[in-house]
Here is the input.
Amino acid sequence: MGIRPSKTQGQRKSSVETPKVVITSSDRAQLELKLQRDRLMAAIKRYEVVAQEERSKASDFLRSGNRRKALYCLKRERIQRSQVNSVNDMLDNVQRLLDTVEFNQIEVEVFNALKGGKDELSKLNSMLNVDDVAQLMDDVEETVEEARRINDILAQPLDGYVGDDDALLAELLPQVSTEIPGAETAVEEVTVPTHALPNPIEPEGRIIDGGLGKVGLSA
Here is the structure.
């Protein structure tokens, strides 16, 4: 019992189908000319092989003393050589026609490409207004010029400033002292001690005559 393909498989196959290739009259002409060229090249090879065989036979007959057959083979060789020349001329004509057809096809493709590019350019020009583009370019130029002037001003050294740096900073100190309480302490508010300082405590051991001696503490 066979397994029937599902509908999804059939839809998948139909969706994977390759598009049909359109064969134009130019393609048919190129194909016919190429086939004719191949047939002529094969005929030239056959004529050359036969001519070489006839010449070999003529050499053999001449060695054996049969001049009549040797001349007959040489005449057949000459006929084959003339056929080769005629077919070569035909081959040149076919190749020339093939080149012409291919060149004409290239010209058509180039013309179609140029036409498509012209159509796209026309659509783009219809979408863009010339006045809007000119205004946009003017705005961009003004913005760039303004940015250039600002950069030039910031890059200039402060040679024109004359003044005291301490005085300039003093203008900022009141604002800083109000914003940060206790940031500045007056010198007059510091209290200096006036009472006697306590005697220093002597250490338990001190050096006596170059040695370390212990001194007893009073009770």
Summary: Residues 102 and 174 are 91 Å apart (CA to CA). Residues 25-128 form one domain. The helical segments are 7-16, 25-63, 67-127, 130-155, 165-170, 173-179. The chain is about 70% helix and 5% strand.
